[in-house]
Amino acid sequence: MAIWIKEPQKFRSENASVYADIESLTAFAVTTAETIIKGPFPGNLSAEEAGAVAAAAALFEADMVKAKTVAMANNTGPYDFRKAGAVKIADLSNWYGLDKAITALLPANYPTDKAIWVNPKDYFTNLTEIIASHPKVAVQGYLLLRALDALQGSITTEPSSRSEGRWKTCLEYLDTSQKFTVGRFFVGATYSETLRQYVDKMAANILVEMKESLLPSLPWLQPEEKARAVKKVDDIVVNVGYPASLSPSSSSANVNGTTSFLDTRNPESLAAYYRDLNITSTSSFFSNVLSARRHNLYQTFSLVLRPADRHLLGAGRYPPQFVNAAFNSADNTMHLFSSLTQSPNLSQDLPGYAAYGGYGSTIGHELFHGFDTNGRLVDESHAFTSWWSEGTVAEYSRRAECFVKQYDGYTYPVPGPDSVPGNSSSGSFGNSTGNSNSNSNSTNTSTAKVNGAATLAENLSDAGGVRVAYETWRRTQSVTKDANLPGLEKFTHAQLFFMFYAKTWCDSYSPERNAMTAPLDNHAVGAWRIKGVLANSRAFREVWGCKAEPVCELY
Question: Is residue 437 pLDDT above 70, yes or no?
Fold first, then answer.
């Protein structure tokens, strides 16, 4: 199994705008200084010394955020083969001694002359320069603060004051320390074998539609390329529901070198997997948290000793309650976790147009990641290669550029220049308004632009996913006609398909929340995952009687 090192997914502040101007950054540093004084920081720092450390760490982190923003603008996803680079572990010594950190975490018998992937490579090269340009206290302060952020919740001796109650705090820690154990109970309580088979059949139907109808219809793909694309779809392994490996090769090495057979449903399998986890009633809560984090970290790194198992959901890293669906371009596998294959996303009791419009479009979305700006660079044999002609690539790129320009023209509400926390005001979003999911709202709002280049891979997959799900649903109607839903008889079944698709991304975030999350997300905000996608859907326009042509078409 290959090792990938990615740029940071999160920073100390969830609000990306904090790092954009000196005033916000200064306020953030003041709060950080208070944390330093109260926290278990080395030495007895004075308020002035704590302020200096906080300011230096904040400036260092701001430069890291800028580097990530640049990297995101050029990347197509977490495993962008165009921007990634293979580097030998021994050569990482030039990158602020990263080789020592990686070697300490890897199993003792792992050879250091093997290459690992860094993505994007330019980010890590730039990070070396950033570290060299800042004083040592800035880097040390930043690392200590990150450690404090991660562990301070388990240091306190005070009972939880969270409104959700102590049980939720405990469950969150359990979900982190023994995620597969929690997954066993989650699957047992919510996920039937009938539902798993239902999802598996939906995915199989969508793959058939892709091979037999959609791929052959693409005018820009050459005949021999279509044939290879069909082989690539034939090769896809779809993992549904929960981690339950089917072959002994999926066993993972424990910290002590033994192996464990991971089957989320099996208590004996889970006991073997967690045999090295040392949690006791006599240890402090903090000690138990550290023990769990250490165990999970070494279990993750021990995966490198195991042959990659394409039939193991989430590659043995993610539990069934992981709220996501995913496609791994490197080994051509799709992962449909049980968390999303349930109501309100999916119900076996609803008609097919609801199932395919809602969750079927998600399956289709993951399928098209195999052909997005990154996935198209991997052929049917999992080789990273250019297997399309120059003419095909040129036409693909021309059509994709239309999507970039389209989404560049979309905006979303963010706090205005005179924002004051605590005063309520909602921001317009097309024809919708909303200010939920935030405890503070601004007195006015402004707008920020969607980044069409950074969100391109997801936007292309959205477009392809809706089309293949719709065509698959239409094919099922030749066998069994869907029933009507009470109260919705005035809509056709085809119209309801798109309504259930829209329901998937129907959300309402405050301007503050948008400012925090949108700039560092490679997905467009929810409203444009509806409006932007349907503006490009020929089928949507036909069933709703829209006269205008689609804005952009690729699939």
Answer: no
Q: Please state whether beta strands 115-119 and 4-6 pair in parallel, antiparallel, or not at all (unpaired).
A: parallel
Q: Give the residue-averaged pLDDT of 280-304.
A: 87
Name the packing angle between helices 526-535 and 456-476 (round to 10°): 60
pLDDT at 524: 93
For residues 23 and 35, what is the distance between their CA atoms, to the nearest angstrom?
Answer: 19
Q: Which of 344, 341, 366 lies closest to 468, judged by CA?
A: 366
| d(C-alpha 202, C-alpha 335), whole Å | 13
Q: What's the distance, Cα to Cα, between the start and end of the chain in Å?
A: 32
Q: Which two tokens stand for residue 177?
A: 């320390």
Three-state DSSP class for residue 237: strand
Sign of CA dihedral 209, 211, 216, 222: positive
**pTM of the complete model beyond 0.90:** no
Q: Which residue has the tokens 């302020």?
A: 51
The amino acid at residue 22 is I
C-alpha 294/C-alpha 262 separation (Å) is: 19
**Alpha-carbon 488 to chain mean position:** 34
Torsion sign (Cα): 35, 39, 42, 47: positive
* Structure-block tokens of residue 79: 């495993």
Cα(541)–Cα(531) distance, integer angstroms: 12
Contact between residue 421 and residue 450 where contact means Cβ atoms under 8 Å apart: no
Element (H, E) at 490: none
Cβ–Cβ under 8 Å, residues 90 and 18: no
CB atoms within 10 A of CB 95: 16
What percent of the chain is predicted at pLDDT more than 70? 82
- Alpha-carbon distance values, 485 to 347, 353, 496, 540 (Å): 13, 11, 10, 20
Nearest residue to 459 (alpha-carbon basis) of 552, 355, 529: 529
Q: Which domains does the chain carry? A: 4-156 (1.10.1380.10), 163-190+245-311 (no CATH)
Indicate the pairing of strand 252-253 with strand 4-6. Answer: unpaired
Strands (E), 52-126: 85-88, 115-119
Is the distance from CB of 244 to CB of 311 less than 8 angstroms? Answer: no
What's phi and psi for 554, nearest 5 deg? -125, -55
| Cα 32 from Cα 51, distance rounded (Å) | 8
